[in-house]
Structure formats: structure tokens, C-alpha cells
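Exercise: predict the fold of this chain.
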Amino acid sequence: MTIQKFRNFDIAILSFLAILVDVIGVLFFKRAQIPMYFSISYAVVILAYVRWHKFGFIVNGAVMLTHLILFILVFDTAVGEIALHVFSLVGLSIFLGYKHIKNLKTWKFGDVILAYVLTYITVFILEFGLSNLFGYDRNIIDMFISQIFNIVFTLGILFIIFKQKTLFIDMTYYFEKREER
């Protein structure tokens, strides 16, 4: 199997996993009539960026499209607010895509937490700011309480991913080193 075929397969699996966890989370909370949006796909998106750098945007794009569809089909949300939420996720892709992650061997779990939390805060502030700018009155306290669950669960998943030495690796670097042997 070539590197490109493996990358395509890996990206497809990661995209499917990210979509699956978001759909299950949303449907569970909707069925339980809990007014919050549960999404732990950010851990999978971060993993995709770590493994495949700019190709992680494919997984990020799949998550953005999934959120767009879920907001339209599941939630009674204005189209403008949906667009703002999806647009705020672009902040995640810009940050992670621009922050071409290198030297992963030197990363500690604290670095992963810092990267995730800073990215999530950026997305959160961007979504809140754009919502208020365009006239969608959102309470920051309600948003924060709702999103704290996402942060905690995603950090737990990132911890598990980080501890698996074969998951949290730069695959391009891995294959290059392997070819040198």
C-alpha cells in the first residue's frame, strides 16, 4: 500500500469516526431533551492534523459539513446562526493548518492540552462574537456551561490518544524514516 492510499484510508476512517461521534452525541442529547450540543469530534480533528498536517482539513471539513447538516435537521436554529457556528470552526482549521505541527516527539501532554484549549477558546469567542455581532442574542454563561462538557470529554479522549504511541504520530515523518531503512 502506498503512502497516499494509506493516508486516504486513514483520513476516511478519521472522518467517519468524527462524524459518528457528533451524530451520536447530538441525537443522544436531543432525545434526552437536554438543550446542549455535544461534540467530541475535535479530538479526532486534532489527531488528523497531527498525523497528516494539511490533509487534516478534510476531516475538519467533514465535521463542519456534519455540523451544518445537524443544525439544519435536528435543531430549530436560524440559518445565519448555523453559518456562524460552521464559520467559527474555520478558526480551528486555520489555527491547526497554519500551526504545521513538527517535532511531535518532543510534545508532552501539556502541549496538547494547551493547543486544544487555545483553539477551543478561539472557536468559542469567535462564535459568540459573531453571533452577537449579527444580532443573535447569546448568553456567554449558558454557552460556557454547555461547552464545558465538550472540553472535558475531548481532553479525556486526547489523553487516551496521546498515551497510544502509535496513534499520535506524524505519519509522513514515520513513512519517510521507514523508507530510509
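Check your answer against the key: The mean pLDDT is 76.
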